[in-house]
Specification:
By secondary structure, the chain is mostly helical. It has 13 helices and 6 strands. The chain has a domain at 2-250. A hairpin with a 5-residue loop joins strand 3 and strand 4. The longest helix has 35 residues, at 321-355.
Length: 356
């Protein structure tokens, strides 16, 4: 346990120490997020970008110092480096959604090639195993064994790219994405460190990620002094996705603790596609925006969503596979009901304002 505490503290300390330097650099080079004329963004003054670089520094330095380098870990780090670099370029110069999506698949492909992928069989919530080994082939390249399992590999890529974008969609209020990611990392740590799973290396990676997120968080708490930008959101989402499948950790646990941002991301994509828009086109109709429209402050909305993550994280740790499925269905139902009520309330307020 002392090793885990040290890893958490070291990551938090590095992230906290690096963040002011990154913020100063971003301000001096005008790498800032400027409020838009349409009022989509909730902040009123320009805020420095590149916070993701500080989070990444808080993660990668303790990982390199405390963990032996393996094929899996090398793939994890290389995938993260790719997405952090892409995110920095996007924050500085801007990239098209297609280019960013392409690089996300490259990063996920690197992780998959390094052996981080959904196994050929996964636990069914109804008991037994689901076989994903159809079409499996094996080959050796430069002395390294590779296993091609089309269905499992495709699900792995979609999971990793999807979660990277989910955290990016979540990054709409000060402290929201960083805090929820930190909570999710702690849940993954508790799962991996527990007797049932007992994956010490996965647990150490997860607790280091949590330390990096929480060490950076005070600078992003409302009113934020720095934003993580795409570099941080993509990085956090990718690592959480990889932790969920690294060495057989549980997908159901990650899906539940990150349930509300996953549902919100799916709703956002479907909403935009129904309007004939790109699923990556930003708007102000995410669940956290609806909470603001309902009268909550930024801090209140963030704390409400923290509470949801903690509650379902505890359920994920305590429940079996079938119970997790029931809990996820309940979460989807509650989210759908809340979104319906909030959207209806928001529409009525807009209509009332127009008739005055």
């Amino acid at each position: 346990m002392w090793l885990y505490l040290f890893g958490f503290g070291l990551a938090a300390g590095i992230a906290a120490a690096v963040t002011p330097w990154v913020r100063t650099y971003a301000q001096e080079h005008n790498i800032v997020d400027v409020p838009d004329a349409a009022g989509r963004k909730v902040h009123k003054q320009p805020v420095a970008y590149l916070g993701g670089v500080a989070i990444f520094a808080g993660f990668v330095l303790p990982v390199l110092a405390m963990l032996p380098m393996t094929r899996h870990l090398a793939a994890l780090l290389l995938g993260c480096v790719i997405l952090v670099a892409v995110g920095v370029v996007d924050d500085v110069r801007g990239l098209s959604p297609v280019v960013k999506l392409g690089w996300q698949f490259v990063a996920a492909g690197v992780a998959l090639a390094g052996g981080i992928g959904i196994a050929g069989q996964i636990h069914s919530p109804f008991g037994g195993m689901v076989d994903l080994t159809w079409g499996r082939t094996n080959f050796v390249f430069m002395g390294v064994d590779f296993h091609i399992t089309p269905v499992a590999n495709a699900l792995s890529l979609v999971w990793m790219v999807g979660l990277a974008n989910t955290v990016n969609f979540l990054d709409g209020l000060d402290g929201l994405a960083g805090g929820v990611s930190g909570i999710a990392a702690l849940v993954m740590f508790a799962l991996a460190a527990g007797a049932n799973v007992h994956q010490p290396q996965v647990a150490l990676i997860a607790v280091i990620l949590a330390g990096a997120a929480f060490g950076w968080l005070p600078y992003n708490w409302y009113p934020a002094k720095i934003f993580m930008g795409d570099s941080g959101a993509y990085f956090l989402g990718l690592v959480l996705a990889m932790l969920a499948i690294y060495s057989g950790a549980k997908l159901a646990t990650a899906a539940l603790v990150l349930g509300f941002p996953i549902v919100d991301a799916l709703w956002a994509a479907l909403r935009r596609l129904a309007r004939g828009q790109s699923p990556f086109k930003a708007d102000r109709q995410h669940f956290h925006h609806l909470l603001l429209n309902a009268g909550l402050s930024q801090r209140q909305a963030v704390l409400v969503l923290y509470s949801v993550s903690v509650i379902f994280g505890v359920v994920a740790l305590a429940a079996g596979t079938f119970a997790k499925l029931i809990a996820f269905v309940l979460l989807v139902f509650l989210m759908a009901a809340a979104i319906g009520v909030l959207v209806s309330r928001d529409a009525k307020q807009r209509k009332s304002a127009l008739t005055k």
